[in-house]
Design brief:
Length: 70
């Protein structure tokens, strides 16, 4: 039987993109499927869908993330 492999969604502030990319790379090296929105124009529906379909959600909770209104 096939296993439905879910992914990890990473939520982060745009100024933490470098850290996020490093984390994505390290997780992928460990064979995790990772989704992190890297586009400049944030598509909230894509983010919501990814979160709904995730096994885990990691939040890079920096001070900028906490105080961002988006």
């Amino acid at each position: 039987s096939s296993v439905n492999v879910k992914h990890i969604t990473i939520s982060y502030h745009k100024e933490d993109r470098s850290l996020c990319m490093t984390l994505v790379s390290e997780l992928e090296k460990q064979n995790f499927k990772v989704w992190a929105y890297m586009e400049r124009n944030l598509n909230l529906q894509a983010v919501y869908t990814s979160i709904e379909n995730s096994q885990f959600v990691l939040m890079l909770m920096s001070e900028k993330y906490k105080h961002d209104n988006n």
